Amino acid sequence: MEYSCKDFKVGKCEGQKVVDGETMPLVLQPPEPEKGNFESLLMAIKKNKDWFEEMIIKNSAVLLRGFNLGSAEEFNEIVEAFGWDDIRYVGPAPRTQVYKRVWTANEGPLSEFIYYHHEMVLIKEFPKKLALFCETPPPEGGQTPFVPSFRITERMLEEFPEAVEKIEAKGLKYTFTAQSNKKHTSSSFSSMRGRSWEDAFGTSDRAEAERRTKALGMDVEWLPDGGVTTILGPRCLTKVFDGRKGRRMWFNTLVGMYGKSHSSAMMADGEEIPENVVKRCEEIIEEESIQFDWEKGDVLFFDNLALLHGRRPSLPPRRVLVVTCK
Ligand SMILES: [Fe+2]
């Protein structure tokens, strides 16, 4: 595989790290300043589709910088050029469609940290790739930090080999409680607990909601206050995907859901996971995290099978748009 391409120039960004020999993110810029525009980028991608996709897998994250993308429409066309199928978002994050495949990223309050996750990790069919576009960079903070998932497995195995293999063998069980929007008439965007179950499942009919959750591989328990607890499991702790050097990805949302008021994570048979294991995992994830400051017009591609990602708090305004791809 040739790791250079004359239609892109390899650049640098603050916060880059080299992990197992690969620079993350790989920064690609126009080969000359006059090619710093949407049309040139579109042409460069159409010409180098396969190469570009290889780079996403090899480096896990690719940042396009200096192409001055200006709109959701242009972003949509750039992603379309790859020919990857769209995958519809399913999950608790409040999102709004902006243009065709382009949606807002999580509209939860900017003051809150969105914890690291593989996109739609608990859903049977999750996206292989994510593309993000920075329309309005925040004045401060608001990075989209990401973490090479295999490093978490490696380090957890170094520190807690027995616990890791035990959880892996048993599998994980998660619960997530969503309220009913009949109870909460205020904006469902007002809390990081996300949407009501009616919004999340796209129906206010309980039987239909049950059918839809079953199809996604979940069970539900209705609560006296009209809310619902969704139960998922058993789910994996780690996963190995084709073409990714046999790396064992930390493909779970244990830290994000463990011991919260509206969610929990335990072993699939109900055995509790020791708190110190989860706390240490949280520290390791933060230590392995990589981030850069968004610039207007940036486009970032993630290999969703290889990276966890989150969102740091920021002041407004901040607008980052997203496309999820099969
Ligand atoms: Fe996400």
Automatic annotation (TrEMBL):
Q: Kindly give the Pfam families that the UniProt entry links to this protein.
A: TauD
Keyword terms: Oxidoreductase
According to the entry, every stretch annotated as the TauD/TfdA-like domain falls at 32-324
Q: Name one GO molecular function term.
A: oxidoreductase activity
What PANTHER family would the database entry show? GAMMA-BUTYROBETAINE HYDROXYLASE-RELATED (PTHR10696), OS08G0383800 PROTEIN (PTHR10696:SF42)
Spell out the protein name for this chain: TauD/TfdA-like domain-containing protein
Organism, as annotated: Ficus carica
